[in-house]
Amino acid sequence: MRFKHSRVASSAVALLHLSLLAGCHREHDQSVLHPASSAASEIAWLSWFLMILCTVIFIVVMGLTMVAVFWRVPTPKSEESRTRGSADMSPGLSPLGDRFILWGGAIIPGILLVLILLVSLRTQVALHIPETALTIEVIGHQWWWEVHYRDQEIEIANELYIPVGEPVRLKLKAADVIHSFWVPNLQGKTDMIPGVTNEMWISAYRPGVFRGQCAEYCGVQHALMALVVVAVPREEFDQWLETMQQPTPEPETDLQRRGKEVFQEASCNNCHAVAGTKAKAELAPDLTHLASRRTIGAGILPNNRGNLAGWISNPQTLKPGNRMPRTHLEPHDLHALISYLETLK
Ligand code: CUA
Questions:
Q1: Hey, whose CA ends up nearest to atom 1 of ligand 1?
Q2: What is the pTM of this model?
Q3: Any alpha helices (H) in 71-107, and if so which ranges?
Q4: HEC profile for 164-181?
Q5: Which residue among 94, 97, 213, 274 is the one 20 to 30 A from 171 at the CA level?
Q6: Ligand 1 close to Cβ of residue 48 (< 6 A)
Q7: Distance CA 313, CA 338 (A)
Q8: Which of 35, 65, 32 is nearest to 51 (CA)?
Q9: CA-to-CA distance for 337 and 93, rounded, in angstroms?
Q10: Centroid of ligand 1 to alpha carbon of 221 (angstroms)
Q11: Does the beta carbon of 214 lie inside 6 Å of ligand 1?
Q12: pLDDT tens digits, 36-77
């Protein structure tokens, strides 16, 4: 018995720790409970409202259940009183019981359900797409995100830059199976369905890096299909746009030039594109601005030399099932290739 109690206690402590951990701020925040936009604030407010209301209802119902289980109704002592009792009382419930069923089973639940409906509708109205100046197209792939700023002729992957304080329209598509775009700090989920363009919007009222996650099971690496939304002040956003629109720099050193050759010899250009070069394939993430990305493999590893080398050499170990095959390269060629990739800013 004591063992059982200690297990219950340790489970409760573990749950408490989990909920406390969920409240921790991290560099790449991903939490419904830390809203960074008006839409996410509405959703967080609705979540808290439902959570508190349902907790109160649960406690009241459990309390009444305990009363029903443990409250002993006194039984009539004599045969006479029993006979009288059954004759006096209707075969069903007492008037008090009838009233209780009417209020507890119909009127109060009815009022609560209408209240929940009205509060949910209020949230839904607050989430309608406002006027937007910027549109970003995001296409879900197994298991990465293709990102286009069509008007600005910019293509990147697994990252979205947005200006703080401005609503941004998203056009969401899917290239293969159903995915779902979800950046909890900024907005609710929206599915990405092949053959359909769904629209939603995001905004951020403070700068930050907000992590997003595919929210619809889409295959073996669904859990490793992440992205980040980087919200920066308007000025910084304009600078970013300008940097992204610059032509791809030519390799400057012999090592970088050799790397560019390796890129073609190793058939990287069969799947990837680099703007301004012969590499124009669209099967895999566009690498024009690879070096400016924070992560590789759709959010699974920090983007640095060591991880890039590991990813190119054996991507199937890092993310089994992804579409990138192993690339067998001599160490000096790998070194050169990475030096070239590092110029793609
Ligand atoms: Cu894409 Cu889950």
A1: 179
A2: 0.79
A3: 79-88, 95-102
A4: CCCCEEEEEEECCCCEEE
A5: 274
A6: no
A7: 11
A8: 32
A9: 83
A10: 8
A11: yes
A12: 999 999 999 999 999 999 999 999 999 989 998 988 776 666
